[in-house]
């Protein structure tokens, strides 16, 4: 489809294929295999001399439509859809690295990504160095001869730190490595990392791409050459996205732009309100002028995104953790769950949920204190969200 179309138009129109029935909404192909006209065609499909579907572990028309739509939105040559966000990271690393290779990764990554790198990949002979997301000198210093990937999330979870994608891409390319950006928090609606110099994008489609908390999925995107071994791994290892999930994500992508704008406008309003509350000592949100990388975020993101975190001032008799838990437990409407990217706002205590497996020392070094609360702002009315957090308005005492 014409790349000159605007993002909203691509989200609705790109990637669509229509069958002989002329359906206007994309069809769901719930079939594992595809049949051939004759033995010669089967042979041609298997040899690759004729393109077309063989088996849904390799390709499926509904999954292909999802891949083509997401690739159009990210401005990528190719998208490889996977069973989950973690499967996307696995396929990326397994496809592109081998034993003896080295990865430089941000230490502010999704908790399970840290586990994958430090526990599982280590067993297979990959070396990983973790560095502070915003410390460009540390990234530079950590690169080695055998560095294959630089891996970062921006904005980060849960502190919404912002990495300079363009600067990281220069460091990566100088080291003959590839820059991988997990674009989960922004989605292409708010940030397009390939246009800033990144080589590979990772998505947990489970989050904003679905947007309504229903199914798991992921994606890896990049040039055809870089995606070839990633797809090769997926096709063989079977970490494939299900056709049903792809169909849900296709519908999710159609409304991505309007949803992300609505999430971000509520998140900004909530972040501004939180900054005024007596029981809040600090608010982390890239759209606030008080954010340390406000200017950078304004340059590389269209809006601040939907995630806000804040630190609660404890009462005299309270521990930091008790103060955070009190705020969470006082909510009546917001869902207490660690998921994000849902129309329903969610609230969580990172230190005891998403980051509970990170050692207390590492958590503190990363700036994740015990009084930190994270909200993934949904699409409820802003006044109802504020009302649910009214405890923060009470005077300290
Ligand atoms: C959730 C998440 C993942 C993992 O995705 P799953 O779909 O849960 O496997 C990876 N990165 C980020 C930033 C996430 O939030």
Looking at this protein, list some descriptive labels.
alpha/beta; Aspartate Aminotransferase, domain 2; Aspartate Aminotransferase, domain 1; 2 domains; seven-stranded mixed beta sheet; binds pyridoxal-5'-phosphate
Q: Determine the number of helices (DSSP H or I, runs of at least 4 residues).
A: 15
CATH topology of the largest domain: Aspartate Aminotransferase, domain 2
Distance between the termini: 61 Å
How much β-strand is present in the residues? 5-15%
CATH classification class of the largest domain: Alpha Beta
Overall mean pLDDT stands at: 96
Largest sheet: 7 strands, mixed
Shape descriptor: globular
**Proportion of helical residues:** 25-40%
Q: Could you say how many structural domains there are in total?
A: 2
* Structural class by secondary-structure content: alpha/beta
Bound molecules: pyridoxal-5'-phosphate
Order of helices and strands: HHHEHEHEHEHEHEEHHHEHEHEEHEH
Total strands: 12
CATH-defined superfamily of the largest domain:
Type I PLP-dependent aspartate aminotransferase-like (Major domain)
Strands ordered across the widest β-sheet: 1-7-6-5-4-2-3
Rg result: 22 Å
Unreliable sequence segments: none
- Specify the CATH architecture of the largest domain: 3-Layer(aba) Sandwich
